[in-house]
Design a protein that fits this description.
The protein contains ten helices and 18 strands. An eight-stranded mixed sheet has the order 4-1-5-7-8-9-12-13, sandwiched between helices. The N and C termini lie far apart (43 Å). The structure holds aspartic acid. Aspartic acid binds next to loops.
Length: 318
C-alpha cells in the first residue's frame, strides 16, 4: 500500500455552517472518514497545518506547506493538500516554484460544498486526489471536478460550479471520467521520458519576497500608484494590462513611472487580463516601449503564476 500524507489547511471542504457562514473545523481524519473506500486505497497519515479560509492564506503559509513536504518527503509516496478553492491556484503555483524537481505527486484539492453537505463534491475530489497521489505522475497538480491541472496553470473561474478550475495556456494533465483518472497521452509520454533520465534531485527553495504588488489596469487609471509602491519599498510589480500587454502612454503616461521603478531596482512583469494566449510586448509600441523601459513579459503565465513566480525569483535569484 502506498503511504500518503494528507496536509489540511481549512477551506470549504472542512467547513461546518455557523451563524456567520461556513467555518473550517474538520481535521484530516474526519475528512478521510467521510469518503467511502479511501482508507483501503492507501495508508493515510494526516497533519493539520492550518485552519483557514483560503482568502487568509499568505506567502508564509506556502512556506509552511513547502516545509512540511520537505520534512516528510522521504517518509511518504505522495502528498494531498486539502485547501480552500479561492486561492488554491496561488498556492499551487507557489509550490510549483518552491518544490523543485519533485519526483512524487503533490496534489491540491478542495471542494465547493462542505464535505458534510449532502451531494457535496468533496468526497469525489478527495478520492481522485488520493488516486493521483498514489499514481506515477510526479509534480505539483490540482485535482478538481473533471480534471487534473498542472500547479502553475490553474485558475478558478466559477464561484459555485463543480468544475471550478480551468487549465490556462496548457492542456490539463488528465481528465477525470466515470472510469477514473485518464492521463493525457502526450503528457504521460513526457513524464515517462523525464523519469527515464532524471537529471535533477528534489530540492526545496522556499524563500519568497512578499513585497510584490499586482496592479490591474483600468482605462484611464493614473500611474501614481507605481510611486506608492516605490515609496513602500516593494521589490516587484505585476502589471495586469490589456490584450497583448504593455503600459498606457497617452494622457495617463505610465512610462516615466515604470522607468523610475526599474531604476530603483523593482522588477516589473507585464501580464494580461486576457485569460488565454498570453502577452506579446512586441506587437504594439505600448509594449515595445514598456520592454525598453525595463519591463519583462509574463508570457503565457496566469496572473497567479506570475505573482508567485516573481515572489520566488526575487528571493532565489540575483
Ligand atoms: N472561501 C473558501 C476558501 O477558499 C472557498 C472554498 O474553499 O471553496 O477557503
Amino acid at each position: 500500500m502506498k503511504k500518503i500524507l494528507l496536509l489540511t489547511t481549512g477551506g470549504t471542504i472542512a467547513c461546518q455552517p455557523t451563524a456567520d457562514g461556513l467555518v473550517p473545523v474538520l481535521d484530516g481524519a474526519a475528512l478521510v472518514k467521510m469518503v467511502p473506500g479511501l482508507a483501503s486505497l492507501c495508508d493515510i497519515t494526516s497533519r493539520e497545518l492550518l485552519n483557514l479560509d483560503s482568502s487568509n492564506i499568505e506567502s508564509k503559509h506556502w512556506q509552511i506547506l513547502a516545509g512540511a513536504i520537505e520534512k516528510y518527503y522521504f517518509d511518504f509516496d505522495g502528498f494531498v493538500i486539502a485547501h480552500g478553492t479561492d486561492t488554491m491556484a496561488y498556492t499551487a503555483a507557489a509550490l510549483s516554484w518552491m518544490l523543485q524537481h519533485a519526483q512524487k505527486p503533490v496534489v491540491l484539492t478542495g471542494s465547493q460544498q462542505p464535505i458534510t453537505m449532502p451531494n457535496s463534491d468533496a468526497p469525489a475530489n478527495l478520492k481522485h486526489a488520493f488516486a493521483a497521489a498514489c499514481d506515477k505522475v510526479p509534480g505539483v497538480m490540482l485535482v478538481f471536478g473533471n480534471k487534473i491541472i498542472g500547479g502553475s496553470q490553474a485558475k478558478k473561474l466559477y464561484t459555485e460550479s463543480r468544475d471550478a478550475f480551468v487549465s490556462v495556456n496548457a492542456e490539463p494533465w488528465a481528465d477525470i471520467t466515470q472510469a477514473g483518472i485518464c492521463w493525457r497521452p502526450r503528457f504521460l509520454q513526457q513524464v515517462e521520458r523525464a523519469q527515464a533520465s532524471p537529471q535533477f534531485g528534489f530540492k526545496v527553495l522556499s524563500a519568497l519576497e512578499p513585497r510584490v504588488a499586482l496592479i490591474k489596469l483600468i482605462p484611464g487609471l493614473a500611474p501614481g500608484i507605481i510611486d506608492y509602491y516605490i515609496g513602500q519599498g516593494y521589490k516587484g510589480i505585476v502589471l495586469e494590462g490589456f490584450g497583448a500587454g504593455g503600459v498606457p502612454n497617452g494622457e495617463q503616461n505610465w512610462l516615466p513611472h515604470l522607468e523610475k521603478a526599474v531604476q530603483v531596482g523593482i522588477r516589473v512583469l507585464c501580464a494580461t487580463q486576457c485569460m488565454y494566449e498570453g502577452v506579446n510586448l512586441h506587437k504594439y509600441p505600448i509594449g515595445t516601449w514598456a520592454a525598453r523601459a525595463g519591463a519583462k513579459s509574463a508570457g503565457l503565465l496566469t496572473t497567479e503564476a506570475a505573482v508567485t513566480k516573481l515572489m520566488w525569483e526575487l528571493a532565489n535569484t540575483k
